[in-house]
Amino acid sequence: MTTEILPLTAYPTEINMETKFLGIVIDSNINFKSHLKSLCKKLNLNLLMLRAMRPFLDNKSMVDLYYTFFYPHLIYGIEFWGHASKTDLKKILVLQKAALRVLVYVKPGKHVTSFFSKLKIMPLKILFEFRLLKLLLKTYSHEEISKLMLNHEYNIRNKTLTLKKANNNRDQRSLFCSGIKLYNRFLSGDWTGSVGGFSEGLAGRLWAHARQ
User: Fold this and answer.
1) pLDDT at 72
2) Cβ distance 115 to 100 under 8 Å?
3) pTM of the complete model beyond 0.85
């Protein structure tokens, strides 16, 4: 039995530099540019739908539409693509603000930052931090978190988590490194092992810090 040797031209010469995994486009540099480009298209389509429905619905119904159609695309995988560059993330924030203008029925270009807190809609940065922290607390058990804690002899409430020095930028953007930094910033000394118990209080802390 002989094995046929194919000429070099018969083999693929191009290497695919990105792939889609569970709906998230991952590129070779892990900068999520392609994913955010795709996300912008989805958000734009939902933005058109919100604008089309606005004349026929009241404010509460519009907010419901936002959480039903726009919001799911916004939060899907944000724990990962939320580490993208500020320039790329700004494009998503612009679309979120555009959706907010539709909800409150104001003209394009008008500042709507204050309406985020009034409608209890998290802006992109706070949404990313909130969901990343919740993912961290769901991923690591209470025992694992406890082992990372430094128990200070004279001030037991002042607890922080140890964090090994990241080797590169990718390590810094990992769930563990970025999550621990946020933990030390917002939850240090308050970990009780209950994920659900933090939701309301954590959101309040993130909002308060954003106003500073």
Assistant:
1) 94
2) yes
3) no
